[in-house]
Write the structure tokens for this entry.
Amino acid sequence: MWWALFAAFAGIALWLQSWRVALLGLLTWCLYEFVLVPTLCRVLKREGYPCAERVRGRLFACGPGHQQLKNDALWRLVGLRDPFQKNDEDPETGGVVHSPYVRGRLTQADRALILLAALGTLAALIGTIYGFR
């Protein structure tokens, strides 16, 4: 259903020759990737394999412990350290089994799609500001 909506945005943008409609479609895709796409948690469990719990959105994890690890990975993706992290302990156990850095790594596909969605959001914002001039 979502892909039909994205195709409709593309078709309408081409038909109307409207870059504004194309930007709206791009922004809708970015929203979908950030918070709506059905995916898996994929945070490494203590045993060393990825969590297979279903979640909605690439920015989210299945529970508070895994969410903290994913937040750390997202901060690292932009080259910063999580300012809200209190310590380097594992949020699930309170001790270090696998370092949070290793457990909180994003998969290559997630990393690529999050960066593309962020760039798309930035392009839509710049296009919107440019359109008001």
The chain is about 55% helix and 5% strand.
